[in-house]
Structure prediction request, 151 residues.
Amino acid sequence: MKLLLALLSISLVQTSFAQDQMELGKTVYMQLCVACHQPTGAGLPPVFPPVIGTEYVSGSPERFAAMILKGVMGPITVKGMVYNNMMPPQEALLTDEKIAAAITYVRGSFGNTSPAVSSEVVKAARAKFMDRKTSWSEADLKAWPEGNAPK
Ligand code: HEC
Prediction:
C-alpha cells in the first residue's frame, strides 16, 4: 500500500511537471514562435514552414534544440515546399528551460504526439555546440545522426 501511494505520488509529480512545461512552452511559443509559425502551427507557406507533422519536430530532440539555439538558414524543404528564409538564433535570449518547454509544447500540440523534451537535452546541446557561430543548413540537419527517426 505504501509503495502504491509512493508510486502514485511520483506519477502525480511527473504529470504536474509535464503540465507546467506545456504551460511555459505555450507562453514562449505565443510570445516568440507564433510570429512566424502562427497560432495553429501551420506557418505561412512559402515564407514560414509548418511545425505540424514534420521530421524536424518529431525527430531528434537534440537537433530540435540545436535549431532553436543557433537558428536555421534556408533553403530547406519542409513537407515538399522549399523555404529560403532565416530562423533567428535564440541562444542569447532563451534559457534551457524555456527552449525545452517550447519544444515540448510544439511536440505535443497541433496534432503532434511526440514525447516531452527535458531542459537537460537543451543544456547538453548548448555545451556541445558552444563554439559554433553559424546557423544550421539543411545539409547539416539531414546529416544529424538518427535525425529523422521519431524520438
Ligand atoms: C522570425 C521567424 C521565426 C521565428 C520567431 C521562429 N521560427 Fe522556426 N523557422 C523559421 C523559418 C523561416 C524556418 C525555415 C528555415 C529557413 O527558411 O531558413 C524555420 C524552421 C523551423 C523548424 C524546422 C522546419 C519545420 O517546420 O519543421 C522548426 C521545428 C521550427 N522552426 C520551430 C520553431 C520554434 C519552436 C520557434 C520558437 C522557439 C521558432 N521556430 C521560431 C522562422 C521562425
